[in-house]
Amino acid sequence: MFLLADKNASFWFPEQASTFAAEVDWFYMAMLYISLFFFVLIVAAMAYSMIVFRARPGYKGSVEALHNNTLEFWWTFIPCVIAVWIFARGVYGYLDQMKIPVDTNNVDVLARKWAWNFTYPGGVSTDELHLIVDKPAKMTMRSDDVLHAFFVPAFRVKADIVPGRYTNMWFEPSKTGVYDLFCAEYCGDKHSAMGAKVFVQTEEDYNAWIAKEMLPPANAWDWGQKQYAKTKGCIACHSIDGKKVVGPSFLDTWGKDVELAAGGTVKFDENYVRESVLNPQAKARKGYETASQMPSYQGRLKEEEISALIEFLKDVKTNTTKKE
Ligand code: CUA
Question: How far is the CA of 291 from the centre of ligand 1 (A)?
Answer without folding.
Answer: 17
